[in-house]
Design brief:
Layout (H helix, E strand, L loop, with lengths): L1 E6 L3 H18 L3 E7 L2 H8 L6 E5 L9 H11 L4 E6 L5 H4 L4 E6 L5 H16 L5 E3 L6 E3 L3 E7 L2 E6 L3 E5 L2 H7 L4 E5 L2 E4 L3 E5 L4 E4 L4 E3 L5 H7 L8
Parallel strand pairs: 1-2, 1-3, 3-4, 4-5
Antiparallel strand pairs: 6-7, 8-9, 8-12, 9-10, 11-12, 13-14, 14-15
Helix pairs in contact: 1-5, 2-3
């Protein structure tokens, strides 16, 4: 799931982009949702401090304020260095300045249509599919999961279940193929489980369980215990 945030100082623009995004998601079968839409840039910064956000569509000029979208982008980058930034603008003088914030694209205010927005989204999802460091494609329909959001992956019969912080995703695939595509922080801990070391809260070798940030649990198999222990750099998470 790719999470979008929309922020513009005009509520009608927020609603327009929201409606067009929803249409584009549905028409193109994009696995995405809008998690916040607001006219308040402070709300965006606060929300991003405690929520997973992958794409921010941000007004570049807030009327009646000394703050610009570039100032907000600077705050966003201090919280999240990897999210995609798409600026809404009718002022081209800001364009060159915005590049330093790793801007993905620009939407021209008086020219935003379903077609132009879809073109941007197609390029965005193409980029996501080619960026293995941040996102993982789990099926042929273009379903992407933020790797940082995965707690652990489970093999249950023919099904593969991706347990994330907010929901579970089920697909059919080879467990071995998935393991080979994952970054090094994903470790096989059981014949049926792959754990994301970054999201481990506690490991208990007394009952062979791993506790994750969302309070979910998976198990450690005897065959994998030694290799798991080698991957743990210190005893901070070991009970």
């Amino acid at each position: 799931m790719v999470n979008f945030v929309i922020c513009d100082d005009e509520i009608h623009m927020v609603e327009k982009i929201s409606i067009l995004l929803e249409k584009a998601f549905l028409k193109n079968d994009f696995d995405a949702k809008i998690v916040l839409k607001t006219t308040d840039y402070n709300e965006v910064v606060s929300f991003m401090s405690s929520n997973i956000v992958n794409v921010v569509i941000l007004d570049i000029e807030f009327r009646g304020s000394n703050i610009t979208g570039l100032d907000v982008a600077n705050k966003i980058r201090k919280i999240n260095k990897n999210c995609y930034l798409i600026f809404i603008t009718s002022h081209f003088e800001y364009v060159m300045q915005a590049y330093k914030f790793k801007t993905f694209d620009y939407l021209i205010k008086n020219a935003i249509t379903l077609e132009t927005l879809t073109n941007t989204l197609n390029r965005l999802f193409d980029d996501i599919s080619n960026t293995n460091v941040k996102f993982f494609r789990i099926d042929n329909r273009g379903t992407f999961i933020d790797l940082n959001d995965i707690q652990f992956i489970e093999k249950n019969g023919m099904r593969i279940i991706y347990h994330t912080s907010h929901k579970d995703y089920e697909t059919y695939n080879s467990f071995k193929k998935i393991e080979n595509k994952l970054p090094n922080n994903f470790v096989r801990c059981h014949k049926s489980f792959i754990a994301n070391l970054k999201n481990i809260v506690n490991i208990s070798f007394s009952d062979n369980t791993i506790l994750f940030k969302n309070d979910s649990i998976c198990y450690i198999g005897p065959k994998y215990k030694n290799s798991l222990m080698e991957m743990i750099n210190n005893d901070a998470v070991v009970k």
